[in-house]
User: Fold this.
Amino acid sequence: MMPFEKLGKLLSGARRKRPLYLYNTLGKAKQKFDLASYSRTVRMYNCGPTVYDVQHLGNLSAFVFADILRRTLEYNGYSVKQVVNITDVGHLASDGDEGEDKMSKGLRREGLAPSLPNMLKLGENYTQIFLEDLRKLNIDTERITFPRASHYIPAQIAMIKTLEEKGYAYKAEDGMYYDTARFSAYGVLGGVNMAGVNEHARVETKATKRNPTDFALWKFSSEGNVIGWNSPWGLGFPGWHIECSAMINATLGKQIDIHTGGIEHISIHHNNEIAQSEIATGKKPLARFWMHRAHIQFEGGKMAKSEGNVVYLSEILKRGFHPLAVRYLFLGAHYKTPANFTWGSLEAAQTSFLKLRRFVNTEAGTGKAPPELKKKIHDRFNDDLDTPGALGILWEMIRDRSLVGADIRAGILEADKIMGLGLEKSDSEAEALCQKLFGVSVEISDLPERIRTLIDAREAARKENNWQHADSLRNELQKMNYMIEDTSAGPRLFKKE
Assistant:
């Protein structure tokens, strides 16, 4: 018998023969993905949350996207080391280093005194809420590293010192800044036109700031503000951008394979990361692939706190929805396309999720995923995570009357390795929703004779490939609140109350 490890390697090798293409913001095109010469595993960093409050649905979508990416990589035979940072200090209200620190804002909102212990306690509280939301969305948090920015202060100070020694950092009135004029490739990801930048291109430039695009590496604590750490430049706290660079270097190394985030990170945050990391480490590129998720919309407009239209996972659950209906909703739109959230679209997503789940749990036979359809689905995922395309093929397979139910079930479960809907998992909440939507399973032998006669007539029509008559009989049963499901072991009936 072939050892399991050897068999796994052979299967992985077979999957890797099928090329994987991902859209790279750095090259502004789909590019073939493979491991870099310096990597044994895929090193992936996902920009994480600032934990001053609960993360809304738009925030959470970035991590479902990262999970789909991870699953796709693993399905293709790669091993993945994934890091999601937790920003518990240093993220100012504006990405351009203006406004109030978000953690301080959180302290004030909850009536807590401005102190470092209170800030860290607040951050950890919202970190745990965030992690629980991820788990509800079927993201395995045990396989992800979640470094806290506050735990890497010495590493951030060391990186700033290196930048200062190399002549890329200077001291201003309110902190230490990165001199973007020294970095000729600044803005390489796009969104910044260095030739056209003026005093008001991003934020109002302070008198002590050399260039409008310069960004804070270390901010000095203001008078009366005791939140901060000692540094060679004075009491203060790190800039948001340096946190990511330092944590990438500490957890993944000087260079990584994939860096993800929201599209809002492209013009400032990620360009800043590149500038400081590549100078501090002497290695470039920081990341070979940069991938960015589009915004989630609410009824056609951007979902954002500033717009007052955010939706939280807790609210969705209170309304009786299953959390994985949200995941299905995200799967229904390509990650580069804004998914439009409405309560109606969520209801439709839940119905589809429950239909898939019921099919998997109704069809008890052991089958084999149709090779051609399996290949088509795999190709969709490998074409820059084309999740809506994969779902389309999946539903075509379900509707294909020439296929055996057990084989369809196997195909669904194969696709679910990437979709991550947990269709085969025991889930009492999902089962209760299925019963509410589709009815309770009943024994055909216990039914009245007239119902059994209709079922027998439908089975006869199916054997004769008289699909029109079979569908007509199905509709007649539905009018009597009976829902019929076809399985390899014969029809199953569900009664709606």
Q: What stands out?
A: The longest strand covers residues 256-262. Residues 315-432 form one domain.
